[in-house]
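Morning F.,

Quick status update on the modeling queue. The single chain you submitted on Monday has been processed. Sequence for confirmation:
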Amino acid sequence: MVLELADTGLPVGADCQASAQNTSEVTSGGGGLGGAAAALGPVSPAGSTDFDLLPGVYDVLVLCTAGESTWQAVEHSVSIRRDHVANVRLEPSQEL
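C-alpha cells below.
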C-alpha cells in the first residue's frame, strides 16, 4: 500500500504515525486475521510512504502531532490484494 498525506498545512516537523485494522471476515483456510490491528509506523507528511500488508480489507488511520496540536485521518475499507498496489490519499484535517 502506498500512503500519501494531502497537503493540508500540517506544520513542518509534524510526527505522523499510521496504523491499520483488518476488517476482513475469514471464512475458510484457518483464517484468524479478522480484526487484527497493526502499527505500521511513521508516515512522511510530505510525500508518500510504502507499507506491506497481507491481503484483506483494512481501516487505515493516520495520527499526526505537532506540539499541543493533533490531527487524524481515517480511510475505511481499503482493499489490499496480491500483486496490486493500493494507493491511499488521506487528508489529516480533523484537529482534536
